[in-house]
Amino acid sequence: xxxxxxxxxxxxxxxxxxxxxxxxxxxxxxxxxxxxxxxxxxxxxxxxxxxxxxxxxxxxxxxxxxxxxxxxxxxxxxxxxxxxxxxxxxx
Length: 91
Known about the structure:
By secondary structure, the chain is α+β, with helices and mostly antiparallel strands. It has helices at 12-17, 19-27, 78-90; strands spanning 2-4, 7-11, 32-36, 39-46, 54-58.
């Protein structure tokens, strides 16, 4: 188990191997982030309404915004362009 700031993280494989001890840590009040190849996929937190219960929620993806503005319009079929590019590289 590793730590991100004040939050514990655990990989999916370690979670499967140590499920009981992980659940005990959550019941004790810890929040644990489950990661898949280093990417957060879910968070396990103690369930707030019941003593001793837990809840598992999917990780929230943060939206990234990227805006590109072209000064001129380009009328190219991307499939044709890729095929031509591949053919020129084979020659």
